[in-house]
Amino acid sequence: MQTSSDRHEYPAHWEADVVLRDGGTARIRPITVDDAERLVSFYEQVSDESKYYRFFAPYPRLSAKDVHRFTHHDFVDRVGLAATVGGEFIATVRFDRIDADGRPASSPAEEAEVAFLVQDAHQGRGVASALLEHIGAVARERDIRRFAAEVLPANNKMIKVFTDAGYTQKRSFEDGVVRLEFDLEPTDRSLAVQRAREQRAEARSVQRLLAPGSVAVIGAGRAPGGVGRSVLDNLRGAGFTGRLYAVNTALQEKELDGVPAHRSIRDIAEPVDLAVVAVPAAYVPEVVTECGEHGVQGLVVVSAGYAESGPEGRERQRELVRHARTYGMRIIGPNAFGVINTSPEVRLNASLAPQMPRPGRIGLFAQSGAIGIALLSRLHRRGGGVTGVTGVSTFISSGNRADVSGNDVLQYWYDDPDTDVALMYLESIGNPRKFTRLARRTAAAKPLVVVQGARHGGAAPQGHAVRATRLPHATVSALLRQAGVIRVDTITELVDAGLLLARQPLPRGPRVAILGNSESLGLLTYDACLAEGLRPLPPRDLTTAASAEDFHRALAEALADDGCDAVVVTAIPAVGETSAADAALAEALRSSAAAAPAKPVLVVHVELGGLAEALSAAASTAPQAADTAPGAAPGARFHPADRSPTAVSADAASDSRLIPAYPAAERAVRALSEAVKYAQWRLDAGEPGKVPEHEDIDEKGAARLIDDLLARGEGLTLGGEETGALLGRYGIDVHRSLPAPTPDDAVAAARSIGYPVALKTTAPHLRHRADLGGVRLDLADEEQLRRAYTELTELFGTPTVLRPVVQGMAPRGVDTVVRAVIDPAAGAVLSFGLAGAASELLGDTAHRLIPVTDRDAASLVRSIRTAPLLFGWRGSAPVDTAALEELMLRMSRLVDDHPEVVAVSLEPVVVAPTGLSVLGATVRLARAPLRDDLGPRTLPVV
């Protein structure tokens, strides 16, 4: 640690773990006086060429004066950071504050000279880019606005680090040296560069776990059974294409069922990419150390006894992650079910699932092992093809997700060519802001379907260390949908949607044709479409006598109809129908659908006998009688009675799309409805709208007012005059109201405002509760006002309790509520709904993330169930929704421009046929919360 002579205490908050370009991790931390030996050792391992580039002259070793200078910092004008792996330096960066002439300076000088040195063995890993992000953030914290760097022209790598960072910069050439100067204020380009690097690095870190060249199972026992031995057997059974090792301190044998066996991973002569750790928690630290020293790239920890077991286990889990990151390793788990990669080049089943899933195009992520088993089992028995056209690409069960999370997996799936659809079961979201950002980007490229567990428990599962959110589940769900996430409620719906999206095209609209050989089933499907907001065409009944050719012809006609966007085929088998007839029907549907590949086709079937089995068997896709589902006990069988979705497919050798078949109309239609909404989101995402500039906004004036108000203290709720002044800077006018502590004061206020007026209470228990009678409207003169004042005080209490105010009457219209809040986990959220107990009781509120675009505002107004009241319901006059959208955009700008505004409530906002009136407003201020999504790249703190 730094000595007492230093100007600032050691800044522990600058410490961070980062993922590098190759997927490994490093620790970034401030350099202290205790690092002298590490610095000397590091410098000795740097090549002469790199030293020359750093000091512009031969510099074989550091002098004692150099070591002192490079390890003694005041953390204000002189700062040094180091990137470490295994506790040793692999790179350093430092800045020294300078004045306009380039001489050492102190604050308020706003420029600093920056220099890097990266060990040659670690060059090309993105270490310097990560260090630049962090040293830049430190500099901004210390009020440094610009960096200057002098680089030799031949040092192309370092020049590229600076020029690729995306900052606004100037470049000059003097005395044989390239001088670069750049502002540290983040730009759109620098943020885009940072996030692109983040995506590549995190995707690569997951790819190293899913496609290892070698795997060691640590804790594999001699006898069959047990966690470690089961994982080893599953790896062997899947045909893992890389090298496989068994490790157990008790092993005397050289082999274990043909797998090379060792007592320690240190005894393995070859490199090991992935270690599956299946030893008791007490022995895991020693295993992690051995793996780190051997150069293992990642760990899958299936061992239990961590955060899920209580406070001691939680601390054990934190130490596990810290320990692994010290060596640059990432962890899946602990308490994980494992990982699977069905790629023929890998064939990895490092999990407790005894059978490899069919290979295919669906990626699965589950935070729960039990749910992971259920997902694998359901997808296995859905009738996917033997060639895997709708099977699994990768599967990750993260357990306590102490390190690798759903965010990391989304980064991997985003550009994974083997994954077309992503299915996720989440019990907690550790970084909702980042998840929403990644989900939006992923959903623009491929469908992302999510089930949230623990929705109503009020807390994350015990093993998950996540920050709390104050937002209700309905709000979080709405924000996920805004990001393009397909939100479903059950794992059955998750599989149903995945089966449809994996191999069927997205519908171009909500118009659905229904045809089949059962009038009743057709009507059920029609009703289900209406319930899900689709636009079904009248069902076409082919009668029970319909042949396969009749189905073929009817489906072809429906698909050719320009007024149809999707087709649902309903089918019931005839009594005594043969399997040959079932196969003919399956082929008829397939061939007809193949001729019109732009529209999705779904089948609703009622099982009588073996219809579902026959449909799958017709395409050679049905599981054989002896098939076991992944995760199930050996010997378990699945039968048609399980009523899981099946699929009608092309011949197994072809790549034609599958036609998903469902045992109930509601399930098919619900999956189709989600596909329709997702397709519309994709269309809208191409034109997201814009955030208007609003030239009349006084951003600087608002900032000065906020600073003055916060000087009084933290957590400040503004008074009426202050609220009006702040909102007025953003063009939001609050209807004037005056306090009326006595009847005479009420009369004086009314004279000042002008009759007619309203008299209302502002007591917390009566505020915004017109249904309780605390408001009197259209008071035309002094007599009516005094009478109303007497009535209120007699009914509800003294003026001191009621806090009455007088306000001018506003044009009549629809009462609405507009709110904004900054949630510590999800960020800034804008909410809208109609005012009144009915809307609150029904939860009829819509939400959007801030900043809101003009398209967001328009959709926000129209997305509540009671929106028809704004557009002329039952002959009433439509109100000025354009003015309402304008208000939302201004409020969004206020909160986005000034993060100190942590809560705003406008209630009620009366929207009239022309214009609107804000009758009540409250604003709460606090110091701006830290935005972890805008800082340098870091892994979550454990």
Commentary on this structure:
The chain is an alpha/beta fold and 942 residues long. 34% of the residues lie in helices and 22% in strands. It has 27 helices and 40 strands. The strands form six sheets. An eight-stranded mixed β-sheet has the order 1-2-3-4-5-6-8-7, with helices on both faces. A seven-stranded mixed β-sheet has the order 11-12-10-9-13-14-15, sandwiched between helices. Helix 9 links the parallel strand 14 and strand 15. Helix 16 packs parallel to helix 17. The protein is globular.
Largest sheet: spatial strand order: 1-2-3-4-5-6-8-7
CA-CA gap between termini: 22 Å
> Which segments are poorly predicted (pLDDT under 50) over 5 or more consecutive residues?
1-6, 384-389, 608-612, 614-629, 631-644, 649-655
Radius of gyration: 33 Å
Mean pLDDT: 87
Major sheet size, sense and barrel closure: 8 strands, mixed
Fraction of residues in H or I helices: 25-40%
Q: What class would the helix/strand composition place it in?
A: alpha/beta
Shape call: globular
User: What is the count of helical runs?
Assistant: 27
Which range does the strand content fall in?
15-25%
Number of strands: 40
Write the layout of secondary structure elements.
Blueprint: E1 16-19, E2 25-30, H1 36-44, H2 48-55, H3 64-71, E3 78-85, E4 88-98, E5 111-118, H4 127-141, E6 146-151, H5 156-163, E7 169-174, E8 177-183, H6 188-210, E9 214-218, H7 227-238, E10 243-247, E11 255-256, E12 259-262, E13 274-277, H8 284-294, E14 298-301, H9 311-326, E15 330-332, E16 338-341, E17 348-351, E18 359-366, H10 369-380, E19 392-397, H11 406-414, E20 421-426, H12 432-443, E21 448-452, H13 473-482, E22 486-488, H14 491-503, E23 511-516, H15 519-531, E24 535-536, E25 540-541, H16 548-560, E26 566-571, H17 579-594, E27 601-605, H18 611-618, E28 646-648, E29 659-662, H19 665-685, H20 699-710, E30 716-717, H21 720-728, E31 737-739, H22 743-753, E32 757-761, E33 775-779, H23 782-796, H24 799-802, E34 804-808, E35 814-823, E36 827-834, H25 837-842, E37 845-849, H26 854-862, H27 881-897, E38 901-911, E39 916-918, E40 921-925
Parallel strand pairs: 5-6, 9-10, 9-13, 10-12, 13-14, 14-15, 18-19, 18-20, 20-21, 21-22, 23-24, 23-25, 23-26, 26-27, 27-29
Antiparallel strand pairs: 1-2, 2-3, 3-4, 4-5, 6-8, 7-8, 11-12, 16-17, 16-19, 28-29, 30-40, 31-34, 32-33, 32-34, 35-36, 35-38, 36-37, 38-39, 38-40
